[in-house]
Design a protein that fits this description.
Elements lengths: L5 H7 L16 H11 L7 H6 L1 H29 L1
């Protein structure tokens, strides 16, 4: 295909201006919240019902963060032992 043809210019040409950011797209706030809840072992499908009752929610979150901290500490100990 000749260089002056439009399909070749579109497929193989470069943009005159602008850049696309490298890497993956930025996460939404909702996505980061779901990730955090999953790490704390809170069910992402039913967390809203648990959050309606403040005392239950506080208990769930305290247990979840304790689980997260203990698993993080275990990972750090294992990582240090591998060195």
């Amino acid at each position: 295909m000749d260089d002056h043809r439009i399909p070749k210019q579109l497929l193989y040409g470069e943009l005159a201006q602008g850049k696309r950011p490298r890497g993956r797209p930025k996460l939404r706030y909702k996505d980061t919240c779901k990730t955090s809840l999953s790490k704390c072992e809170v069910d992402v499908n039913t967390w809203e019902e648990r959050a309606d009752d403040r005392t239950t929610w506080r208990t769930v979150m305290k247990e979840g963060t304790a689980t997260l901290k203990s698993s993080y500490r275990k990972e750090q100990v294992e990582k240090r032992q591998r060195r």
